[in-house]
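Everyone, carefully examine this protein record:
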Amino acid sequence: MTLTKDAAQAAQIASNKKSEMNTRLRASFQQLLAFASLLALVLFFSVANANFYQAANLSNILLSTVVTGLLALGTTFVIITGGIDLSIGTGMTLCSVMTAVFMTQMGMPMIVGVLCGVLFGALMGGINGFLVAVMKIPPFIATLAMMMVAAGLALVISGTKPVYTTEVEGFQKIFALGKSIPGLVIPNAVFILFAAAVVAGLLLSKTVLGRYTYSIGSNEAATALSGVNVTKWTVLIYTVAGTFTGLAGVIATARLNSAQPAGGAGLELQAIAAVVIGGTSLAGGKGSIIGTVIGALIMSVLTNGLSIMSIPQEWQQVAVGVVILLAVYLDMMRRKKAAN
């Protein structure tokens, strides 16, 4: 009896290891596929228009990836839990306005104003988490409401006018357009994105927060039964996501040297598309930061390439919409294949 029991346990362990290996292989393949798609887009647009692969344009692509990429980093955590955050676009705008207000109208030193802008994003994320985890409001509804609240508050606080930060010395140079490495045409904002991606990757792969993020997305009920305080960790996960939204708001303000209260709409869809293209499942439980960064680059290359080819703005929106539909469809196919 003991030998039979031990053999069954050994077989179960071997099966679990095989399943885990298959999952990792599928994740690696999805990242490789996304990277191959990125290279294919770059090659296509380079052949279509020689201006595309110019150093200045490639720098612009990287710079335009920063805000969407930061939003995508944060929402990766939320989507892995099986949730969604529709407030990140207008939330970024509100954080942008608050960052400018902190430094100009309230007279805070630059670093303090930047920190307060990031923390304001964390506060918004925490409120989203409270609505979802404590009040049990579906994430779609809770974050949709926050999206509308953030859009309105950005207009109210700014008086519907841009809030300029040109008087804040060094702000744009340090957090956006300046170049910390001589001889390179890569703006500082790009290095901030990659540094944020490293932090996000470590949080997701090396910490208790990351482990619980995957666990909640895979099976929330089982995670709760195992003794994990799902409510507390869900609030914390949304707070972390909001922190990246706040940082995106700071970068957006620095890049334009002003906060534009009417902007941000639609960025949430691009960020979510970047996350899904990178291999994160909308059903939760699967995803990676590397894939998200690749997905964000794909969205930026697509938008920039279409502009370089003088494609009208309305058709660019059609193309982005098709990419979003394709990304969601591929995610559905991945889940269906994994279930069989």
